[in-house]
Design a protein that fits this description.
Layout (H helix, E strand, L loop, with lengths): L4 E6 L5 H13 L4 E5 H7 L1 H9 L17 H6 L2 H25 L8 H32 L3 E5 L2 H8 L6 H16 L24 H19 L7 E7 L1 H11 L10 H13 L8 E2 L6 E2 L2 H4 L4 E6 L5 H11 L1
Parallel strand pairs: 1-3, 1-4, 2-3, 4-7
Antiparallel strand pairs: 5-6
Amino acid sequence: MRGKLYVIDGIDGSGKTTLAKKLVSYLKEEQPTWYISISDCVKQGVSNSIIEHNELPAHVASNQMSREDIPKELQDIFDINTVTRIDTAAKAVREILLDLENVHSVIATDSNIHYVKAYHYNRLLEAYLNVMIEATEMFNKILDSGINIVADRWFSSTLAYNGIVRKTYISKAIKYFKKYYYRKADIRTPYYLYDRVCFKKITVNKEHDHVYKDRYKDTMQYLASQLDKIIKPDLEFIFLLDPSVALDRITANRPSKDVVFEDKDKLERVFSVYQRLNTDIDNLIYAKDKDKYKPVELLCGSYPRRFLDIRPHHDIDHIFNSIKREL
């Protein structure tokens, strides 16, 4: 029986990793299950990360003669060409993250800083999507072998974190959508709306209607074309937690964590984008080849998605019981 891909995603500090590993232990009682963290694959290399987290033989991904005593399905999963492509894509992510650290150290009053940040955040989104595109073949082999995968993050977080900076793909898509949508909604007078993601009030102008529509359509079609190449979860859980609580947890438990995304303001923006992945009207997208709006699932493909509103008083068992009810 083919395995299933479960994804645990959401804002940093919401308990994703703890619950993902708990889900692995639970699923293992019925079927082999592996834990895969996309972040660890980028940092450590895909083979090292998967082997370490799932207690596989250390030489399973090597090119030594000792591979002969490894089951054939594992040899196929860790095919040297597939691993090399994933690790090459992951190296590009690491290089961009280093560039981003330098960008964040630049004085914020630099007049071009927003364009520079947007450029690097878009590069980061493209690089992460490329890692997932290359990893899709490996994921399919794992699932075909009858092994479940519990993935700690997948493309939802990649899209959400792209939206925390002005002029990126996601922040512009939200901006153009709002302007074009409110025109289509036949709002006669200028409509002002402060948006955490767009960073400013949005004014609707009739004469720019076609511009908003075309730019929104182009952005969505580009993202959809990339996401079409990535394996979709059989079930995804997205955890939403108050950004202040999340930041307290991050600083308390992971003081040495990379600080690129460790900021209350950034977490609030990420939280806002995650909310847009939910069912509200702001999440409609321009459907490919059809001059009408469809639900956000058309961007990533239709698949089961559950949003869990995490409260500070919720313990791990309470949250995990919510997950089990959805399985």
